[in-house]
Design goal:
Blueprint lengths: L5 E3 L26 E3 L21 E3 L2 E2 H14 L5 E5 L5 E3 L2 E2 L6 H7 L7 E6 L6 E7 L4 H7 L4 H7 L5 E4 L3 H10 L4 E3 L9 H7 L3 H10 L3 E2 L2 H9 L3 H23 L5 H14 L4 E2 L4 E4 L20 E6 L1 E3 L2 E2 L2 E6 L6 H19 L9 H18 L8 H5 L29 E4 L2 E3 L14 E3 L2 E4 L6 E2 L8 H8 L1
Parallel strand pairs: 5-11, 9-10, 11-12
Antiparallel strand pairs: 1-2, 3-4, 5-8, 6-7, 8-9, 13-16, 14-15, 15-18, 16-17, 19-22, 20-21, 22-23
């Protein structure tokens, strides 16, 4: 068989495989088949054979192989009781107006286990009781020439097996006939699909078909449990390939920041547009979230996203943004002078925050034995000492006002990755987190006059190491001398 992916158009359903990405090499029946190169086919997402400028050989999604996706499913199945199942639904398309849709983004738990990046899909992962294997069901939208004329290509059920390595597949429109039998044969069901939007197509398909009664019976019997806590534990520790992908998107995003610092802007929206353009020019697919571009006092609002004010000479601008590539994200915050030169007061306050940030980054190692909550306590106490030296009254509720947010959060496929995963867990090698101390000084007589109205945040994405942290975003300039040198 050639090294390119090939569809064999007759015979067994297990006849097509990529030379490196196949999890189980599926032997073709020994007879003649008509064949067609995968590069000539249309799929619902890029593959190496159709988009070699995006994916390397063996990758199912950028940076991640089909083998890794299979390992993830196997690890999940091993966490489930014997003969139980996990059920996950793909994200639905969301609309801002009739016929006008938002950019699609897959449910990240679904994506983490399948690599499948289309709506209208359901995955079932079953612990088959053997102790070292699992069964992977993937139900998707079937190929439909008329629908694809309007909506773009679909991968279809054939690719669910041949590309995404499902053991069983079927048309998602028939899921109401298929899923009840799968559920009935399970001892327990782990799922979060009970929270589906009632307006979604998948909800109507499931709950208008008798499946709802089967699920309700399991709920009443205590046999339906949330899947999210198990997946949070799996996703919190990144694989080597995930860290490489996060480093790659950190590099792209960091360079975009540095190029933005180099320029002179008079409007927040112009800086925002330039930064998002630079994300894509450097290789990102899109922005990971709506950027914060807060000039002057706007920087005191943690999630300021209006980005419609003037950037004034003498003020600082606080920017919180990041790029996304292959669904992995970067999260960076930088603060710099609009005119390229720090005033003495800005320099003093910036140095205080930078000292705290450097100190906390150095503690992002498993051997240090800290949790994110403990690092936050260290950051708060260190920042308090720094502010006292600058003449701040830090008694009472001062730190809750001046530093109102947490030091960090997990990052990965989501900006706030693994939602619900406790910050009290000790950090492990492979955890990827942000370290983002900040200081936000209200225009109030309680605070030294020269610092009022200044907001500063410095944030990097960091991978926890055994004995040393890996900073994922060092290309984003943050030293005072480097920032000023960029503007000459």
């Amino acid at each position: 068989m050639s090294t390119c992916m090939t569809y064999l158009l007759q015979g067994s359903r297990h006849l097509w495989y990529p030379s490196k990405a196949s999890v189980n090499v599926r032997r073709a029946v020994q007879r003649s088949y008509a064949s067609i190169s995968a590069a000539d086919l249309k799929f619902g997402q890029p593959l190496h054979e159709t988009h070699p400028h995006i994916l390397n050989p063996g990758e199912l999604t950028p940076g991640i192989s089909a083998l890794e996706y299979a390992h993830r499913r196997s690890r999940l199945a091993n966490r489930l009781p014997k003969n139980s199942i996990a059920v996950l639904a793909a994200s639905e398309v969301k609309y801002r107006a009739a016929g006008i849709f938002y950019e699609y983004r897959q449910d990240t738990n679904f994506f983490y286990l399948t690599g499948f990046n289309e709506p209208g899909a359901l995955a079932v992962i079953a612990n088959d009781g053997s102790g070292n294997n699992h069964i992977f069901h993937l139900y998707v939208r079937e190929k439909d020439a008329r629908a694809e004329l309007w909506e773009g290509a679909r991968s279809g059920t054939r690719a669910a097996i041949d590309v995404f390595n499902a053991d069983e597949t079927g048309d998602i429109t028939r899921i109401g006939d298929i899923l009840p039998d799968i559920i009935s044969g399970a001892t327990e069901v782990y799922t979060d699909i009970t929270t589906l939007d009632p307006k979604s197509v998948l909800y109507r398909t499931l709950y208008g078909s008798g499946v709802s009664e089967r699920i309700k019976n399991f709920v009443r019997g205590g046999k339906v449990k949330s899947l999210r806590p198990i997946l949070n534990e799996l996703r919190a520790v990144k694989s080597e390939d995930e860290v490489v992908q996060l480093r790659r998107v950190g590099q792209m995003s960091g360079r975009a920041f540095t190029e933005s610092v180099r320029q002179t802007f008079t409007k927040e929206k112009d800086l925002c547009s330039f930064l998002e353009y630079q994300f894509k020019v450097n290789g990102c697919d899109t922005s990971a979230f709506v950027p914060v571009v807060g000039g002057g006092p706007n920087g005191l609002s943690i999630h300021y996203t209006s980005n419609n004010d003037i950037l004034r000479d003498g003020d600082l601008v606080l920017v919180d943004a990041g790029g996304e590539s292959g669904s992995y994200i970067s999260d960076i915050s930088r603060t710099w002078p609009v005119n390229g030169k720090f005033t003495d007061a800005q320099r003093d306050l910036y140095t205080a925050v930078l000292n705290v940030q450097r100190s906390c980054v150095s503690l992002c190692r498993e051997s240090a034995g800290y949790s994110l909550d403990q690092l936050h306590g260290i950051a708060e106490n260190t920042l308090k000492d720094q502010l006292q030296q600058l003449g701040f009254d830090v008694s009472g509720d001062a730190m809750g006002i001046l530093f109102p947010h947490h030091l960090g959060h997990h990052v990965g496929l989501d900006v706030h990755d693994c939602p619900g995963y406790s910050r009290s867990h000790k950090l492990k090698a492979g955890n990827c987190i942000t370290i983002e101390p900040g200081i936000y000084v209200p225009d109030n007589r309680r605070w030294p006059d020269k610092f009022r109205g200044i907001g500063i945040r410095i944030e990097d994405s960091v991978c926890v190491g055994d004995d040393n942290p890996i900073v994922l975003t060092p290309e984003a300039v943050k030293e005072i001398d480097d920032i000023e040198a960029l503007r000459g």
